Amino acid sequence: MKNGHRAVRELPYSPAVGSPHGVEVLSFAALRSMDAQRRRVLPQRPAFHVLALVTSGSGNHEADFRSSPLAEGSAVWIRPGMVHRWSDVEDCDGPLVLFRPGFLPDSTALEALAPTCWHLDKTRLGLALYAVEHLCREHATAARLPHLASPALLSHLLAALVLRALPDQLAQRDSPPPDNRTKDVFRAYQAAVEEHCTDWHQVADYATALGYGVRTLTRATRALKGMGAKTYLDQRILLEAKRLLAHTDVPVEGCARRLGFRDVANFTTFFRRQAGVPPAAWRTAYAATHTARGV
Q1: What pLDDT does residue 19 have?
Q2: pLDDT at 73 over 50
Q3: Fewest Cβ atoms closer than 10 Å to its Cβ: which of 10, 22, 61, 124?
Q4: Which residue has the higher pLDDT, 139 or 267?
Q5: Looking at the predicted structure, is the pLDDT value of residue 238 above 80?
Q6: 77 - beta bridge partners?
Q7: Helix axes 214-225, 203-210, angle to 10 degrees
Q8: Which of 2, 50, 60, 62 is nearest to 24 (CA)?
Q9: Is the Cβ–Cβ distance between 26 and 49 less than 8 Å?
């Protein structure tokens, strides 16, 4: 989606030599070594997933306006398209698992329900690190002995890692997982929202385009995200509005046009209803907070 973000660095998936299978494992130390200019502290938008586990140290991470402190046991899952920054990871250590979209099998429900940041106790962190170690060994084998490479095996080891690292309330869900049709419906709706949220502001528009009823989209979205389809859509539009206000100098009137609102008054009413303050006031407060932090 073209949105005019100038201050957000786009990060394509560029695997290291010997990492042809869509997944690789780095460390916070390697991240710092590769980024001598400390661009990691500035907003960036990866086109791939990052699953990070903090084994020692402390720091801070920000993802789409939610700041999370990091400490031993912290887990962070950055999704493709998310605007985030490692605001302070100078003292952190632990693995970062990078993987391209589609490499994690049947990830729709997990990706939709899992938070961006959560905490693992020592037992669960240790088990997750065992899973990382197994993934690393198989990945090294695939790089060293290509005839033994198995993308399917790496994919399933990644799935085992994610399941092991999930928060307890997701890893031990009592309710049955959504069926495949529900996941397919939500996946289609999610993709359409990503593409058209600056043009289509009503769920009925997506229902017509996708060939589903509004109620079908609502049921699928509620099953995967715990909210209705309209709320999901409004939150996605609000997020894009905040990204424009925070990361560009586009005037509020220009933001309204880019987001598909008829006029600035309509946009202001929407933003105030969703965020509690008008867009200009939100931009001022955000800028003041980050200036105080020295960002």
Answers
A1: 65
A2: yes
A3: 10
A4: 267
A5: yes
A6: 51
A7: 110
A8: 50
A9: no
Q: Provide, rounded to the nearest whole percent, the portion of the chain with pLDDT above 90.
A: 74
Sequence-distant (≥ 6) Cβ neighbours of residue 166 within 8 angstroms? 110, 114
Note whether 119 and 74 are within 8 A (CB): yes
Model pLDDT, residue 5: 43
- For 65-104, b/e burial (b = at least 16 CB within 10 A) is eeebebebbbbbbbbbebbbbbbbbeebebbbbbbbeebb
Q: Where are the domains of the chain?
A: 9-171, 180-292
Among candidates 120, 130, 108, 142, which has minimal Cα distance to 23?
A: 142
Please check the confidence at residue 245 and state whether its pLDDT lies above 80.
yes
% helix, strand, coil for the chain, step of 5: 50, 15, 35
DSSP state, 146? G
Class of domain 9-171 (CATH, top level): mainly beta
Distance CA 201, CA 167 (A): 33
168-203 exposure pattern, b = at least 16 Cβ within 10 A, e = fewer: eebeeeeeeebeeebbebbbbbbebbeebbbebbeb
For residue 57, give the 3-state DSSP assignment: coil
CATH of 180-292, one of 1.10.10.60, 1.25.40.10, 1.10.10.10, 2.60.40.2470: 1.10.10.60
> 292: exposed, middle or buried (C-beta count within 10 Å: 0-12, 13-18, 19+)?
exposed
pLDDT at res. 207: 97
3-state secondary structure of 185: helix
Would you tell me how many other CB atoms lie within 10 Å of the CB of residue 37? 7
